[in-house]
Amino acid sequence: MSAQDYDSQLLESVSVRRRRLRDALLFGVERQRRAMDERVGKVVAGMVIAAVLCAGCVGWSFVSHRLIGQSSPYSSGVSTPSDSPSSR
Asked: 7: number of CA atoms within 13 Å, CB side?
């Protein structure tokens, strides 16, 4: 075994040991909690991204409506159809 292989193996084992010690210090015996916390973080991040996308769509719709200057199809004006039957 060459000296360089030994050094790289030693450095890798030290980094693994440090990671295990850090995880043991942070999470203790609750290893399942760590996995669940990661899942909860991903769900929250997904919800934040979805909310930002929805807000962007609403903002784009508002700005494009203002720039084009078209009247809204949901205006408060009363429309009467021309083909309506007369009263009985």
From this structure: 3
